[in-house]
Records
---
Amino acid sequence: MEIILKQDIHNLGHKDDAVTVKAGYGRNYLIPKGFAVQATSSLKKMTIEMKKQKAHKEAKIQMSAMEIAKQLETIELIIGAKTSSTGKIFGSVNTIQIAEALSKKGFDIDRKTITIDGEAIKVVGKYTAKIKLHRDIIVEIPFEVIAE
């Protein structure tokens, strides 16, 4: 079954993409939830025109994301956490603390775009986080967790 997505869906596609999915997935989940519509020839033509119009706007957004990425590559974050005498953190460090540290540096990054490699951070040390600024632009930021 061929459908046209109305919004970005993780591991499937982006808004206005025409994708092929199994009939049950499209008919029973994507279309009733409003995530997609069934692709017809007229809808395909209309989405192609809309994509052409969006291309210019998308280029501007991508350029601004590239500028932010260049600035972020030079930053190294230090995050303080309460720890025991052995260096184990009470709780864990997550994307919320990374987003707060970035906002202190002057970057307004949504915590949902930040991912941390591996499992939850529960020990003092150096780690890396990935920030997805644009669908094609992902920046790796090193950060260090220290005891407060």
Note: The longest helix spans residues 41-72.
---
Amino acid sequence: MLGLMLDLPKSLLGLTLLSWGNCMGDLNADVAMTKKGFGEMALTGCMAGPVFNVFVGLGASTFLGLVKNPD
């Protein structure tokens, strides 16, 4: 509602909702690992997952951009 009241673009609101939905699975897994006594593993998962996504996403898009336009 706040995004609609501030007249934010619908694409930004959609990406925000998508990112929240993407994090819910990680949250459930991390809470379950912590309850079983693997808190360090859960913390590592919190940090490593997004870092991996950024590196793979940027790497793949950069590679495809270089392949399409090798200037």
Note: Residues 15-68 form one domain.
---
Amino acid sequence: MQHSNSNSNQIFINDSLPHNFLAEKIILSCLLINTEALEMTLGTLPIEAFYFKNHQEIYRAITFMYKNKISIDIVTLVTFLQDNGLLQKVGGLKVLIELISQFPNLIYLKEYLSLVEDKFIRRSLITLGYDLINSSYTTNISLESILKELENKLFHLDNKMKIQKLINNTELLDNIFFELKTKSLNPILYGLPSGFYDLDSLTQGFQRSDLIIIAGRPSMGKTALGLNIAANIIKSSKLPVLFFSLEMSKEQILYRLLSMETKINQMRLKSGKLYQNDWDKLNKMIKIFSKLPFFIDDTFNLSIQDIKTKIKKIIFEQNKIGLIIIDYIQLMHNSNVKTKNRVQELSEITRSLKTLAREFNTPVIALSQLSRNVENRIDQKPILSDLRESGSIEQDADLVILLYRNKSSMINLSDDQSTQLIIAKQRNGPTGTVKLKFDEKSTKFFNF
């Protein structure tokens, strides 16, 4: 079998590779007689999904005509191919007449699309296999680079299999009606529960594909709240949680997590001055968390591309992702933005985080510092405008939570301090304020 690794999307002209001639032919026939077939197919199959070169050219022509609002039937297609010197390339008029002589059953179009897509994915895997073999022989390429490239290509292949199909309004409305009916019979949160019922009541949990900003001045408890939410979600859902810590080391985060979950004073925990019941609680908590898919990354100066790569790795290993937390935005950088303007760079970062949430269909919680302006006011409660110096956070976020504890409470360290969670923005819900109790010694938040 002849093979070239110059183009990983190359279509092999070899009958031994997976393909389905009849399914390809029937799909093209459907496109010439039905508008709904056009919408369904163009939203599903790329040109390379067709194995035969003449089928690719016909599909490419139909795609171009559809995008340019040219009516599509056998006459207009033949005319378009003739005018562009492509008629003989597709096999001539005989091939096109054979297409309209078919009488395809549109009821089975989805099955035909699945057959062609399946063969396309299999050919892509074969190409990937040859690329991997050739790369392995090239000794000046590091193993790390080869494996990283393989991981990226496998991830993209998996995405191709999960490509969303175009659906019409009737189907969409039916789906929404069914969803509402299910909720009415079994009232549950729409998103991931934070573990704090007043907050969940306002937000209906953290929604998939949402960018959630938790912001506050230093020492307000941003990291603590992020860790509390991570622990609550992973214990209730068992979904993988990925915590990016750009300020603290993995060890520091784990000490805080253990202190939070066992309610053992952080100072005693770090010094090792523990009582027997402390050891019992510690042992129990370590056993619980060692079985949960909680991942901490403490890479310094992280970029969006670094985050994407590590998320893909978790999905590749775990087959899913539940929540992503980044602590915190101002410590990130964007290698793709060539500017000395930090505000512009942060704007691009928040935009990329929103894109990240949509791409992986998961909530992304990003912690953020607030402007110093809040400390120069008599009323030091943060407001949404305090985010403005941090790029386009306010614009890109779906949910903004501002943390506030008054200074007298912070100086007088009582066992339980009141922290206000100000819902300053919520794209699809109400704003308001939620109060939580905060234990300074273990950095544990509690419902009131």
Note: The longest strand covers residues 417-426.
---
Amino acid sequence: MRVRIPTPLRAYTNQQKVVEGEGTTVSEVLDDLDRRFPGIRFRMVDEQNRLRQHMNVWIGQDPVTDLAAPVTDADEITIMQALSGG
């Protein structure tokens, strides 16, 4: 499936905006990405296996709240990183 990578994380993907991922859940897809792009998962998921507060993941147009959410090869996952500042 296609995984859209936000600009701040593209340093891990050799500046690729879209990469292919494999898995049957969001967590498995992130594991797959981390195997190919070491360190990327830690930027998105904390030590308790929860999405970091500033990260948002979408399957199609549906927001993900549970990393165990199922995905299929036809899905597109979008990873978004919230920006803060003032």
Note: The chain has a mean pLDDT of 95.
